[in-house]
Amino acid sequence: METLIHRDALARFGYALSDTTRTQILLTLRSGAGYPSVLAEQIGVSRQTLSNHLACLRGCGLVVASPEGRRTRYELADPRIGHALDDLIGLVLAVDPSCCPEADTDGCC
Asked: Tell me, what is an example of a GO biological process annotation in this record (predicted)?
């Protein structure tokens, strides 16, 4: 039986994935922890933009920050998040890989 906790957790996950930058951050962190400056360069966004999205992902409970001296390392809050992303990618590609082309900007499939 679904509970409010399940609903809220899935809503947070969906919100995190609703933005392409946040999605790219999560996908990048699947392979291991990262530092904001490196992540910003890999993803192709400013450090400020990345910082805002990391704050959102922390608030959603999907990533955690670990201070390391003057730097902060970010990683997925739970390895199962990476597995869930892998499963979602496989499912979406199996269902219809052309469902939501990148040119579709209205956010609807």
From this structure: response to cadmium ion
The whole-angstrom separation of Cα 81 and Cα 76 is 7
Q: Do residues 66 and 73 lie in contact, with contact meaning Cβ atoms separated by under 8 Å?
A: yes
Three-state secondary structure of the chain: CCCHHHHHHHHHHHHHHCCHHHHHHHHHHCCCCECHHHHHHHHCCCHHHHHHHHHHHHHCCCEEEEEECCEEEEEECCHHHHHHHHHHHHHHHHHCCCCCCCCCCCCCC
* CATH C-level class of 4-95: mainly alpha
Q: Could you report the per-residue pLDDT of 42-69, keeping only the tens digit for each? A: 999 999 999 999 999 999 999 999 999 9
